[in-house]
Amino acid sequence: MILAFVLLIVGFVLLVKGADVFVDGSSSIAKFLKIPSIIIGLTIVAFGTSAPEAAVSIIAGINGSNDIAVGNVIGSNMFNLLVVIGISALIKPVTVKDQIIKREFPFMLLVTGALVLMSYDVFFRNSAENIISSSDAFILLLFLAVFLYSVISSALRSRKESLSSASEDDEKPRYGMGLSILFTIGGLAGIVIGGQFVVDSAEKIALGFGMSETLVGLTIVALGTSLPELVTSIVAARKGESDIAMGNVVGSNVFNILFVLAASAAISPMGINAQCLGDLLILMAASVIAYLFCAVGKQVNRIEGLIMVLIYGGYMAYAIIR
User: Fold this and answer.
1) Which of 82, 232, 265, 282 is disulfide-compatible with 312, CB 3.0–4.6 A?
2) For residue 131, what is the enclosing H or E element?
3) 94: left (phi > 0), else alpha (psi -120 to 50), else beta?
4) What residues have CB less than 8 Å from 108, skipping those under 6 apart?
């Protein structure tokens, strides 16, 4: 058990540091290729900080630990919406652009709702059990392709304006191309190895304490794999870069559902237990609340941020007591 806790901590360190190095390296490569910063924020940064969730859930899917894979995605998305945005707003009110309110956030609500519908097979399809099948995974991956096409097309339309308004310092890569590639590969390696450590040790801890895999996925694993989003968004909020903070959260949540969960289900169809069904409905409700806070006044203020953090605290208490 002691070794399991040690490996869990080591795994989280590798996940967080690996994601940090991966984002730095890939962002530097993006600047070399003259990719606009909006693409970096909504894709590379968002997807890079979601790499720990991807590593943990995909490895859990390979190992047959579906409850950890599902719980990790649900817990991470809840954490991103309520804690990452909430704490960012507590540090400095988060301004939300029209594009996020009118396009990206509604799309996130759409895919979350689609996931809820796919998970209720017993009710909607008269099936014997609730499963996210390989066909469901294919549909989710198609949603991801649509999202990427929309974001990249929108960014490329404003490419000339973005490049012309950027200073030389803004466009200068942080590292040389060789070092950037090395960081990207090394970061991915750290994420994969750390993900394996987290899944293996979390399972042992769950068995040792009599905890369910669902609870471990919702709490320990979800919190640990969401640290990159939290750190990235807090830093962005302190620097007044609210676009990066919001883009990171929305992009990460979309990626978690449309790639992380879809890839896990493609590897091994995922059974959805009764607790996860309830958590999915809570996630949908949290998504709507977060959207309303963002849409009203186009800003999440400190009071709203505090409310979001308190809602998450209540949800965690409920999950643990349950």
Assistant:
1) 82
2) strand 131-132
3) beta
4) 250, 253, 254, 287
